[in-house]
Write a structure and sequence with these properties.
68% of the residues lie in helices and 0% in strands. The protein has eight helices and no strands.
């Protein structure tokens, strides 16, 4: 399992209003549900980021409740800033690769999310490839420097 953390995401989230923050976190939670295995690490990651983002505790259930892909599209329409959209897609790619297995359902959620925020699939592929290279680099570093 890859260590889930948001390296640069908090600065983008802080620019959002509460509904946009909830949309951002709902997308992460929806992706976490996509493979049918909503793991404790994923739940902790989402709740930690929500808390750090200043989302009220009262909205956590809204964020973590399983929704349809159609509902996700409507929710993500609230995110209109491209840099925020790119950052969210980056975080979603990290989350989707956390268990070292990218499922068809996760790929579908990524594509739907990109489309809902007006990001073309080429840009999504570019972001995903960059994330994968970074994860490989971190795994190699752990082996080389005996950080396991």
């Amino acid at each position: 399992m890859v260590n889930l953390n948001m390296e640069r995401g908090m600065d983008y989230i802080s620019m959002l209003d509460e509904d946009q923050k909830v949309a951002y976190m709902t997308a992460l939670a929806h992706l976490a549900h996509a493979d049918g295995e909503y793991e404790i690490e994923e739940d902790m990651f989402i709740k930690e980021v929500a808390e750090l983002s200043g989302i009220p505790f009262s909205r956590l259930d809204e964020i973590t409740t399983k929704i349809s892909n159609e509902e996700l599209k409507k929710i993500l329409a609230k995110i209109t800033d491209k840099k925020v959209a790119y950052n969210l897609l980056r975080e979603m790619c990290v989350l989707s690769h956390a268990d070292s297995e990218l499922t068809d359902d996760e790929m579908e959620v990524l594509a739907i999310s990109a489309e809902a925020m007006g990001v073309d699939l080429e840009k999504l592929e570019e972001i995903s490839s960059w994330v994968i290279r970074g994860l490989i680099w971190k795994e190699e570093a752990a082996i080389i420097f005996d950080e396991e």
